[in-house]
Amino acid sequence: MLDEVNSLLVAVGISSKRISSMDELTRVASSMFVAIFESLFQVRLEGIIRNPYSTMDYVINAQLVVDGLSHQIQMDLQHISGESIVNGDIRALSNLIHILYRC
Q1: Any idea what DSSP says for residue 68?
Q2: Greatest CA separation for the chain
Q3: What is the pLDDT of residues 66-80, one digit of tens each?
Q4: Cα torsion at 29, 56, 84, 11 (round to 10°)?
C-alpha cells in the first residue's frame, strides 16, 4: 500500500518525501488526500479547512475528499468515511488509495 501511495504522489506531481510507514500515512492521510484529489482533478475543494487544527477538522477534510471523489467517479463510496481515514482504518485507507490510483 505504501508503494501505491508514493507512486500516486509522484503521478499527481507531489513528489515530496516518501511515506515510509503506516503510522506516517495515518498521520498525514487527510491532508495528503486533499492534495492528491485537488491535483488529480485540478479543482479546489469547497469547504476544506486549509489550516486544520482539531481532529474534527481533519475528519471534515477527509470526508470532503471522499464525497468529491464519489461525485467525480459517479460511484457510491459510503463504505469509506472521513473518520475511518483519520482513525487509520487500513481497509478505508487501502480502498481510497486504490480508487485514486485507478483514476
Answers
A1: H
A2: 32
A3: 999 999 999 999 999
A4: -20
